[in-house]
Amino acid sequence: MVKTVLVALDGSDISKQVIQTLQELLLPSNSKVVFCHVFPPPESEMQLVADRPHSESATLPYVQVEKQLQSYQAQLKVDSELELVNGDTAEEIIRLANIYKADLIVIGTRGLTGMKRIIEGSVSSQVLEDAQCSVLVVKPKSYK
Fold it and tell me: Is-above-0.85 flag for pTM?
């Protein structure tokens, strides 16, 4: 039985499909959904360009993501939590899945192929490979 579902969202177009897929799952009423978003690690001060202005705060994207995840929470009939973290995306998703003892991870894929997939990597592939629980990968709908 699926009691805890970790839903990894990145704010891309596939996120809406991930939420739609989650809503189609028949989750028991005592289930819990953990929505997570992983921000890239903050740049060190050594990597910042000295002759350009820098934003004083990265809170705007954080607040926008938090509001979006809260809107997804409101659509659910089961308990849910939010996790917004910094770090390597795949590693953080796996870490959160382990912390929450997730029975299922739901994640989208951008559908990269060929060299683009080799160069950019695939978070969903890494999560699928390293997760200790089942992983549901939502693929983009192809429009013909």
Answer: no
